[in-house]
Design goal:
The chain has 153 residues and is mainly α. 63% of the residues lie in helices and 0% in strands. It has helices at residues 16-29, 38-44, 47-77, 84-111, 116-124, 129-135. The model has no long low-confidence stretch (mean pLDDT 88).
């Protein structure tokens, strides 16, 4: 296992919500940080720089995933050819790049005025009715704000 809890409290079921909320809060607070802050510059500077960085990080994530697939293909042919350490390092790299994508996406959402709750509602609107019933009490988008790409049906 590659994770741990920072103190002696029991591990909650999931950390992702708290982690994203904390990151969203930090990004929001950086609006006042000044030029020394990378996040401030992304929030207030040239939008194209932020968009290019988001695309770059997404591309690096795809390359990291392809590296894992390549290792797995080699291991399928010859299991001794790929060590667990090598595969573990590639997994670590993918996780790192995915973190960069999430960070830059969240900066873009903050810059455009989309709250984390509004983003969660977007993701929840993609669930089936059965999935919504199982979870219960999920935040949802009002129907007039559901937009599946800028096209008319």
């Amino acid at each position: 296992m590659k994770t741990y809890i920072s103190d002696d409290r029991p591990q909650p079921e999931s950390q992702i919500g708290a982690a994203l909320e904390s990151l969203a809060h930090t990004i929001h607070e950086r609006r006042n940080a000044g030029e020394k802050s990378y996040t401030y510059r992304l929030l207030t500077g040239d939008l194209d720089k932020l968009l290019k960085k988001l695309v770059e990080e997404a591309h690096e994530t795809t390359l990291a995933a392809k590296d894992i697939a390549a290792l797995d293909a080699v291991a399928a042919e010859n299991p001794e050819a790929v060590s667990e350490t090598a595969r573990s390092a590639e997994i670590d790299h993918l996780r790192y790049e995915a973190g960069d994508v999430v960070y830059h996406l969240m900066v873009l959402l903050e810059r455009c005025g989309i709250s984390l709750d509004e983003f969660a509602a977007e993701m929840n609107s993609r669930m089936t009715e059965d999935e919504i019933q199982l979870r219960g009490g999920v935040v949802m988008l009002k129907p007039e704000h559901v937009n599946r790409g800028h096209h008319e049906e």
